Amino acid sequence: MNHRPGLDRREALIAGGALWVAGTVSTPSRSQSSAVSGMVEKATRRRRALRDGVVPVVTHEIASSNLPLNSHEATLDVAAQSAAMAAEAKRLGRQPMSEDDRDTLDCLIWDLERDAGLAPFYWHEFPLGYSGSQLSTLSLLFAAPASTEDRTGFLQKVRQAPSYVDGIRERLGGQLQRGLTAPGAEAARAYDQMIVEAREVAANIHKNADAIAAQPGGGAVAVEARKIAEGALAEAFARLGDAVRADYLPALGDQAKVTRAPDAGDYFRELARLRISEDLELSETHRRARDRLATIDGDLARIRRQLGVAADPAAFHRSMIGDPRWYVRSADELRSRLETAIAQVTRLAPRYFHAMPKTPFGVAPLPEALQTRLLNGFYLPPNAASPRGTYLYNASRPDISNWAWTKPLVSHELIPGHHLQSALLFESTTLPPYRKNLYFPAYAEGWGEYARLLMEEGGFYEDDPWGLYASRLLERRFVLRAAVETGVHEPGWTWQRAETELATDPLTRPGTTRQIALSAATFRSTGLQYWWGMHRLLGLRSLAQSRAGAEFDLRDFHSLVMRGDLVPFAVAERRVRNFAPRGRGGRDAAAHRDIR
Known about the structure:
The chain is an all-alpha fold.
């Protein structure tokens, strides 16, 4: 879901899973060919790319000894190197190689080309605020405890932190000079958030320093880290605060200028390549989103008639408020609803897959510190230290939170959605580290939405029309956001108008619609990747069915497109086109040809 306390924490924390393939799909070898693995090693060794204004999670690991790049000059330098390496990788791709090597190489080319493609738009990215805050990145990178083995890397990052913060200040100044600014309301809110995040960064550094001081030989590292946090880093934060308050805020208008820039369409297209792995054009994508929104609204109207409730959507959605069918009275009741939905979906989902991952999963309350930043919660994938997938739900303010959608939420976040994908990745013993660390937002979120729809199609709501309504509302949320995000080019578009339209979604908490609208005003809202990702996966399912004909087995399709790793859609499409059913036919294929 859209769980972004600044940085999308799933992007930064995504870890491990397993690879399982059915039919005649080739299983990856345990080691990449020397040429491809050498190319990957060369690329990851030479780059620390700045991507989309946040930590470049595709190639930057949390354990790195360096912070992400945060200067225009360094970004251009990395972009030039990445373009050269992408060209080299394409030359390597002319050689015969295994399917697995081809997948890895194509992922690497996509990865490198995003550095080169986004570099010209360095000044377009607003570095603060609700979605994509670079200070959230900094806080996250210092949140992990520093062990004896990585305390040198911790200190290196602390030393770089003052320059990193100065880079944010310089970017804001560059945006003012170029007329690529955010709305005044977003910058004002971002200033308040910046103060909180600055304190979080300092607190995390001190917490790590205290832990290191207790380690043998850690005293000197702890002393230097504290000195930087209290000295050079505190001064850098003060400079940033002064610049935002005295220079940036007074110069802003009511509306964003970045989305009205002459190259705004080009910037959107490059962001789409990053987030969705495909070329999209603003106007056409906006039209398609509006068309889909109209279809969903028609479906919802039919369900309301079947339920015998108010025909007017606004009236019906107002009637939800306080209704125990939609709202919970306590955190315990919310947890009970979520666990009931888990028990139900766990019985249904396995029939659509050849095998299910073994990694356990569950739910837990969201830490209090994150409750004001997240709409509902986020999924935390398993890792070696905590081999369990967990959806962290936001149980605060039950009086204003509509929780009718616990069943579609569980399908998206846990099984067969994000947990299935992350657990497959975590359990894998064959995927190389580079592929395990790749993150393609639209593939991940598209799979979550596809999983929700799969359970809807599979009968999850057969005796639950209210739950079906909530599932359709969840799809509507993302299509609505996609329509709003891609409508920034329309004459008369304002973030206030976007906020009003977003408020028609009864599942979104009051007040958060403004955050989403302001993010959309600077191309930082990400609803499009949820809807388009699901749309693309459904298209691949249709392709697989048309190619296999009577031999089509839905379980085979899922084994093709969900192996745990996240890949560009072009790679997934090649897998579908190259797949040849075993010719089982008969009752086995027929039983799984359709979802019902």
